[in-house]
C-alpha cells in the first residue's frame, strides 16, 4: 500500500534552538523525510537560529552529522540528502537581545508562509514573541509552534497564553503534542467515526472500563533537573495522556475541523471528576543490578517527585458516567509500551453454560512500539466433542497491513506539515491547556499538602504494588506490560 503525498506550498521555517537535541533528533529528520517523499517543495527554506556561533556551512555539517547519528541506514538517498542540506541556512540569534535579528529579517521572504518553531524552554517564549513583533516578522501568514511543557500549573499556563496572545491570535499558535501526530492515535478517530461498528457500543452501557498505559523501560536519563520539577503527572498525564483520554471519550464532532474537534475534547476535560486520594498511586523506581535509582538519576536523595503514577478517573456525562478510566505511566518499567485498551462488558447471559471459560472482548490500540490494533473475540475451538470456546485476536499491524517497505511517518512529520497547511486539528487550543491544568492542579496540591512519599518499585517491574490494588479493589486487573 502506498500512501498519497499531498505537497505543501513554499514556506520559510525558522527553528529557534536549532542546535538543540529536539531539533537534531526529531524536527530536522522529520523535515528531511517529508522533503524526500516529495511533500516539501524545492523552494522551501529551513533556517536554523540559535546562540551558537555557526555559519551556514557549519550548521549544514551539524545537521548532516545529526542524520548519521539519529537516522542511520533509514535515511533517504544521498541525492535527496544533498538537496535538502542545500536548503538549510543559519543565523546566530539571541532571544534576550537584538543580536542577529536584523540578519534573520533579511532571510524571510514576504510572499510565503512563515513558521517559527520555538524549540526552546518556555522561559524564552515571551522574549521570542516580542522580538518577532519588534522586527516586523509577524504577518497574517505567520505561525508559531510551541513545545511542552506549556506551563507547570494553571497560573503559569494562563500567563504564557496571555504573553503569546499579546503578539499572535489563537489561529497562529500551534501548541504541539507529538502524541497526537502518531498514526495510531489518528486511526483511533477513524475507527470511531468512520465506521458504524463501534460507535453504538462506545458508552457506559457496553464498556466496562478503559485502560491507558504509557510505559517506558528507560529511566530519567539526562532530564533529571526538569523531571524533578515536573514528575510523571506534569510530564505525561496533564498533556499526552489527557489527549488520549479525550480522543477515547469525546463526542463525535460535527466535522473534522480544528475547532469542532477541540470543542469536543474540551467538554471531556470539563466533565472529569475530581480524583480521590485513594484512587492515586505514585511511585519511584529503585536501583537495579545495572541501573541507578530515581534519586541517583536526578541527584536529589530527598526528592518526593514521582516517576510513576496510576489514577482512576471518572467522567460525569451521559456517555461515560459509571465507566472508570484507568491511567498509568512510569519510567524503568518492564517494557516500552503504549496502548489504549477498551474492555467491553460481558454478555448479560451465557447460552453456553457457566462451565464454559469466558474472556471479555477487548479492543487494544497499540501506539508503540508495534503500532496496530487488536480485537479479542470469542470463537468455537475447532473439533468435535461439544461447544468449546476460546478467545482469539483479530490483529492488524500497521507494518504488515501497509507492507514491509512502507514508512510510517514520525509524528513530527505529520504535525510540521499541518503547521505549514494551517491545520490546527491535532494541536491544543489555549482554553484546552488551561482546563487540563485546572483539573491537574488540585491533585498535585493534595499530595504536596500530605507530603506522602511515593512508593518504591523495582526496575523492570510493572510498578508499585498499590497500583495493582487500585484495580483489584474494583475486581479488575491491569493488562500485562510487554
Description:
One of its GO terms (molecular function) is NADP binding. With 482 residues, the protein is of the alpha/beta class. It folds into 2 domains: 137 residues, Rossmann fold; 274 residues, Dihydrodipicolinate Reductase, domain 2 (2-Layer Sandwich). Strands 14-13-12-11-7-10-9-8-15 form a 9-stranded mixed β-sheet, sandwiched between helices. Strands 3-2-1-4-5-6 form a 6-stranded parallel β-sheet, with helices on both faces. α1 packs across α2, α1 packs across α12 and α9 runs parallel beside α13. The mean pLDDT is 90.
What is the topological layout?
Layout: E1 11-16, H1 21-36, E2 45-50, H2 56-70, H3 78-86, E3 88-92, H4 101-107, E4 113-118, H5 125-134, E5 142-146, H6 154-165, E6 173-175, H7 183-193, E7 207-215, H8 224-249, H9 258-271, E8 280-285, H10 294-298, E9 308-313, E10 325-330, E11 337-344, E12 362-368, E13 372-380, E14 389-397, H11 398-402, H12 411-421, H13 430-450, E15 455-457, H14 465-472
Parallel strand pairs: 1-2, 1-4, 2-3, 4-5, 5-6, 7-10, 8-15
Antiparallel strand pairs: 7-11, 8-9, 9-10, 11-12, 12-13, 13-14
Pathway: Carbohydrate degradation; pentose phosphate pathway; D-ribulose 5-phosphate from D-glucose 6-phosphate (oxidative stage): step 1/3
GO biological process, one term: glucose metabolic process
Binding site for substrate: 178, 182, 216, 235, 331
Task: Give the distance, in angstroms, between the N- and C-terminal Cα atoms.
Answer: 29 Å
How many distinct domains?
2
Order of helices and strands: EHEHHEHEHEHEHEHHEHEEEEEEHHHEH
Instruction: Summarize the biggest pleated sheet.
Output: 9 strands, mixed
Sequence of strands across the biggest β-sheet = 14-13-12-11-7-10-9-8-15
From the spread of the alpha carbons, the general shape counts as globular
Class by alpha and beta content: alpha/beta
- Average pLDDT number: 90
User: At the first level of CATH, what is the class of the largest domain?
Assistant: Alpha Beta
The CATH architecture of the largest domain can be named as 2-Layer Sandwich
Radius of gyration: 24 Å
Low-confidence stretches: none
Fraction of residues in helix: 25-40%
Binding site for substrate: 178, 182, 216, 235, 331
Pathway: Carbohydrate degradation; pentose phosphate pathway; D-ribulose 5-phosphate from D-glucose 6-phosphate (oxidative stage): step 1/3
Domain Glucose-6-phosphate dehydrogenase C-terminal: 189-479
Family: Belongs to the glucose-6-phosphate dehydrogenase family.
